[in-house]
């Protein structure tokens, strides 16, 4: 054993023992250096990832909560995509129904004119040609009312039931209709004409009924679309709130972490120097023996 000494305030000397076999100062400094290395690695990890919680080992409770929020956020993404598709199909269907309603109005005008008993046969025949042209456009509009191969107006697609929440709820549906000429949801038929006079009267009755039917269908689609859009907006706002909460839980304050990094690097450098000094202490024993 050897010792170094220093004087206290009373001028008395205190011995500081050291051993060539066990360098307690170096051991203590090494432990501090290891802690500094771990702290430095943790700070660098937070800076590199931008997160203060990167796994359960950082904080199990916070990590579990963050994972739950991430699952909900992922679910809201699916909900938005599901509703986006339903809204797109519904908007195409609504536009088609409104276009057919406009055709019905034009057809009704022709039928009303042709139903006049005083109208001569030649004029009625001309009106009938225009009427048939308008009538045949109905099926063309219906056939083009498809989005992503989904058509709600020709009896080929079942009701759309998009996801409306992350639990799989489907609280809003977009119903299908068959409004092709002769379809089950319209009084329009492919044989409808306005010549001769009696056919004009019959067609006028059908057109008045069909116009009411198509107006009701348009109202249904309009209401469902408003509901879907409101639900989607709520889902987007909820997703934004969850994203903000997730950031609060796991995102690192990069400004603060930068300051911690600089402090940790300085501390590590000082401990390296301390380690170097501590490792030199046993050599003092050699000097005691004149080595």
Name the CATH class of the largest domain: Mainly Alpha
User: What name is given to the CATH topology of the largest domain?
Assistant: f41 fragment of flagellin, N-terminal domain
The chain-level mean pLDDT equals 84
Biggest sheet: strands side by side, in what order? 1-2
Oligomerization state: single chain
What is the H/E string? EEHHHHHH
CATH architecture of the largest domain: Up-down Bundle
Q: Please state the CA-atom Rg, rounded to the nearest Å.
A: 42 Å
Structural class designation = mainly alpha
Please tell me about this protein's structure.
The protein is mainly alpha-helical and 291 residues long. It has two domains: 56 residues; 191 residues, f41 fragment of flagellin, N-terminal domain, CATH 1.20.1330.10. 66% of the residues lie in helices and 4% in strands. The chain has a two-stranded antiparallel sheet. Strand 1 and strand 2 form a beta hairpin. Helix 2 packs antiparallel against helix 3. The protein starts with a strand and ends with a helix.
């Amino acid at each position: 054993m050897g010792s170094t000494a220093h004087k206290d305030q009373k001028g008395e000397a205190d011995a500081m023992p050291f051993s060539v076999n066990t360098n307690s100062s170096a051991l203590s400094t090494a432990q501090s250096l290891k802690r500094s290395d771990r702290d430095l690695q943790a700070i660098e990890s937070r800076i590199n990832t931008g997160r203060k919680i990167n796994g359960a080992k950082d904080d199990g409770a916070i990590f579990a909560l963050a994972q739950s929020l991430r699952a909900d956020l992922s679910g809201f993404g699916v909900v938005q995509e599901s509703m986006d598709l339903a809204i797109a199909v519904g908007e195409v269907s609504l536009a088609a129904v409104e276009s057919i309603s406009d055709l019905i109005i034009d057809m009704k005008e022709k039928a009303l004119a042709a139903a006049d008993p005083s109208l001569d046969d030649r004029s009625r025949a001309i009106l009938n040609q225009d009427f048939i042209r308008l009538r045949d456009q109905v099926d063309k509009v219906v056939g083009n009312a498809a989005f992503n191969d989904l058509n709600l107006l020709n009896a080929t697609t079942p009701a759309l039931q998009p996801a409306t929440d992350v639990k799989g709820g489907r609280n809003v549906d977009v119903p299908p209709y068959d409004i092709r000429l002769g379809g089950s949801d319209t009084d329009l038929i492919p044989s409808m004409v306005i010549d001769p006079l009696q056919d004009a009267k019959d067609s006028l009755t059908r057109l008045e009924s069909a116009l009411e039917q198509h107006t009701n269908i348009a109202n249904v689609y309009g209401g469902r679309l408003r509901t879907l859009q409101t639900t989607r907006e709520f889902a987007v706002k909820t997703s934004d709130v969850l994203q903000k909460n997730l950031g609060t839980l796991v995102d690192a304050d990069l400004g603060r972490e930068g300051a911690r990094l600089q402090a940790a690097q300085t501390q590590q450098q000082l401990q390296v120097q301390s380690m170097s000094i501590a490792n030199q202490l046993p050599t003092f024993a050699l000097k005691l023996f004149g080595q």
